[in-house]
Design goal:
heterodimer, A: Rossmann fold, 9 helices, 10 strands, disordered N terminus, B: 293 residues, mainly alpha, MetI-like fold, 83% helix, MetI-like_sf (chain B), transmembrane helix (chain B), ABC transporter permease (chain B)
């Protein structure tokens, strides 16, 4: 236990490039080849930017290419047209200093909580001892002290999310990409995790792209909300959320007049898209 | 206070009796299953003994349990005179050695090639049809080729066992690599894992569930390979014992050796299950226990 105290994860690590971690997408179009050989356009002409340290939420109807956008920023995929730039550099190869969080937790089921959290430093070539010490510190920071030796299947959904969060943040990323991370959680757990995320984000201040279906979640957490149109996805509108920080509890902010105002405003724009997407899917199936 | 104390004490007692009754019921069921198992064995073996003693079946062709037991006793008590080619133990050792070498060789090759092809789609597409073709060949026949090429020593048996094992393990390892969770892969890549680190930390552990599942059947195949190789031509081994017994119209000898092989296979199965428990201890307990039958 003494290990915890003498490892203070240095806040300077990874922060040098943080100032340059501005994410810019300009005119990004991504086409996929479907198995039947047809070209499927996931996103068309997507243009928006996320400032360093900014929390940006992306909302939109199902199938509007939100996840595609994330894999383009992370460097897992290349755009068909347009450019994705991080810190002024064109993305080619995995973007340095990025972490991912998925809806389904991407934990290694054969590793313990500690082992999972330690993967980030281990992949970066940090010694095993050092990686484990850092992981121990992060496990404590997400409130899972005492569960270091448990395997993921022994944990509840919320606890697994905490592990995933620690695993994503341990490398002190300058960019955090979140793909509906809390989508599968129950309402109460979701609220708790949102608060935890905000607390940790305020400590590290990575730039965040947070994909969600839940507009309330988007407005409560983000500085900027990007509304996307239904497939092929493109940016419909960008809203800056001027709610003061620190936001405090996500549950109580929902009742503030300014929150309701913004929510109403964005919802008008979003609901149109949702209805169009819905009409299309029902039209296709019938 | 005292009220709640009494209530909780009563509840505790009720829970205790319930637990006791549950444990008793469980024990009774276990005994019942065991008794039924023994009964079934007694019925089958006794029935066999009966129909051959009263003459409904000819023990000359179909053997007889008492004769098999006697033959087993002979095999293990007669030392170097047990068979024409040395002691029975040395026959067991030969077959076991061939099966083990073949098993190790075949599984290693299967894992390495399975993981490689699972990782490399181009290579998999190129080699895929050829592997299917070779897999469609009745590989037992390869034993004849091996005997011709390598003589009647232990090498052809090891090779035959390895070939049989290889395909079982290969297909499972290949499938296991293909089934690796895409999110986990993407996550590892984003965290900065090198291709080698991905193989070591993600792909191989993930495929291990599949690979180990295949080892259960694979050892059986290794024994089959060794035995068939010995039947085709050998200087010692259990397959040769069976062949000699067959040639001298001795079904009891065949059955006796068969039961020895069954014991070997069961022991190996037990060892592999232990290994599986150790390597896959991270898994939730339910599936492996229900599969324990």
């Amino acid at each position: 236990m003494a290990v915890r105290d003498d490892v203070v994860t240095s806040p300077a690590a990874g922060r040098g490039d943080r100032a340059g971690a501005r994410i810019e997408l300009s005119g990004v179009t991504k086409r996929f080849l479907t198995p039947s050989g047809e070209a499927f356009t996931a996103t068309r002409d997507v243009t928006f930017a996320v400032e360093p340290g900014q929390f940006c939420a992306v909302v939109g109807p199902t199938g509007c290419g939100k996840s595609t956008t994330l894999s383009l920023v992370s460097g897992l995929d290349r755009p068909s047209e347009g450019s994705v730039r991080v810190g002024g550099h064109e993305v080619d190869g995995i973007t340095e200093g990025t972490s991912f969080m998925f809806q389904a937790d991407a934990l290694l089921p054969w590793k313990t909580v500690l082992g999972n959290v330690a993967m980030g430093p281990v992949f970066r070539g940090v010694g095993k001892k050092q990686a484990q010490a850092a992981a121990r510190d992060w496990v404590r920071r997400v409130g899972l002290a005492g569960f270091e030796d448990h395997h993921p299947h022994q944990l509840s959904g919320g606890m697994r999310k905490r592990v995933a969060m620690a695993a994503a943040l341990i490398n002190e990323p300058s960019i955090l990409l979140m793909d509906e991370p809390f989508g599968a959680l129950d309402v109460q757990t979701k609220a708790i995790m949102q608060n935890e995320l905000l607390t940790l984000w305020e400590q590290l201040r990575p730039a965040v792209i947070f994909i969600t279906h839940d507009l309330e979640e988007a407005v409560a957490l983000a500085d900027r909300v990007v509304v996307m149109t239904s497939g092929p996805g493109s940016v419909k509108a960008v809203y800056d959320i001027d709610l003061p920080r620190p936001r405090g509890s996500v549950q109580t902010i929902r009742f503030e007049p300014r929150f309701l105002e913004l929510h109403h405003q964005i919802w008008e724009s979003l609901s149109e898209e949702v209805q169009r997407a819905y009409a299309r899917t029902t039209g296709e199936t019938s | 206070m005292s009220n709640t104390a009494t209530v909780s004490a009563t509840a505790q007692r009720a829970a205790d009796t319930a637990a006791g009754a549950g444990a008793r019921a469980l024990r009774r069921r276990k005994l019942l299953v065991l008794a039924a198992r023994l009964g079934l064995a007694a019925f089958l073996i006794g029935g066999w003994q009966f129909v051959t003693s009263v003459g409904w079946l000819d023990p000359f062709f179909f053997g007889q349990p008492s004769g098999i037991a006697q033959r087993l006793g002979d095999y293990f008590s007669q030392g170097d005179q047990a068979t024409e080619f040395g002691s029975y133990w040395s026959q067991i050792a030969t077959t076991l050695r061939e099966a083990l070498f073949g098993f190790v060789l075949g599984s290693l090759a299967g894992v390495v090639l399975g993981v490689t092809l699972g990782q490399n789609r181009f290579l998999a597409d190129v080699l895929g049809p050829y592997i299917k073709i070779v897999n469609a060949i009745p590989r037992i026949v390869l034993g004849s080729i091996f005997v011709v090429a390598f003589g009647i020593g232990e090498t052809p048996k090891v090779l035959l066992a390895a070939v049989l094992v290889f395909f079982v393990v290969f297909f499972n390892a290949f499938q296991g690599v293909r089934e690796v969770d895409r999110n986990i892969l993407a996550n590892a890549r984003v965290l900065g894992a090198s291709p080698l680190q991905i193989v070591r930390h993600v792909v191989v552990p993930s495929a291990l569930t599949w690979i180990i599942a295949s080892l259960h059947t694979a050892f059986g195949f290794a024994v089959v390979g060794a035995l068939v190789g010995e039947v085709l031509g050998a200087q010692s081994g259990l397959g040769l014992v069976i062949k000699t017994a067959q040639n001298s119209f001795d079904p009891n000898g065949v059955f006796a050796t068969m039961s020895v092989i069954a014991v070997i296979a069961l022991t190996a199965e037990w060892l592999i299950t232990r290994l599986e428990r150790r390597l896959l201890s991270w898994r939730p307990p339910a599936p492996s226990e229900s599969a324990a039958i």
